[in-house]
Amino acid sequence: MRIAGFLGAAGSIVSLMMVLAAAFFSSWFNWAENALSELGVGKQAVLFNSAVLVGGASNLVFASGLRLCLKNVKSTKVGVYLIMVGSVSLALVGVLTVESFVLHALAAFGYFILFPAGLLFVGFDVEERVLKRLSFACGVAALSAILVLPVAVMLLRLKIGFAVPELAESLAVLSWTMPVSVRLMTRHS
What we know:
Oligomer: single chain
Order of helices and strands: HHHHHH
Number of helices: 6
C-alpha cells in the first residue's frame, strides 16, 4: 500500500507540473481561450501526453491500493472502480488527442466525471468522518468545476478558456488524492 500511496501523491504532482510546463512552454497557449487538451498536439505534445499517461497510470495503482484498505461495501467498491475507470480515461486522453475529437471527448469525460463521482461514492460508506467530508467536498468541488463553472463563464461572458475549469477540477481531485495517498503511505499493513 505504501507504493500505491507514493504513486498517488508523486504521480499527481509530477503530472500536474508536466501539464503546467507544457502550457508555459507553448507560446500560443492562452488560459483565456484554450483547453488543456489542445496541448496534446504540437511542439509540447510529448510533454502533455506523457503527463496524462503518467497521471492515469499512477492513479490506477493508487486506486488499486485504496481498494485494499477501504471497507468492502458496495458503494465504496463502486467508488474505487469509478476512480480506476477515471484513471484509465485520463491515460487515454494522452493517446486519443483532440485530433480524434469524439474519442478524445469520451476519454476526457470519463476522467472529469467518473473520478469525482468515485470520490462521492467512497464518501458514502467511509466510517472516518474526516475522510467522508473530504470525499464529499472534493467530489462536489471537482464536479462543480467541470460542470457548473463553464456554464457560469458562458452566461457571464467571461474571457476564460476551458483550461481554467479543467485545472480547477484537477486541483479538487488533487486535494483529495494527496491526503489519502499520505494515509496509504503511513498505513501499517
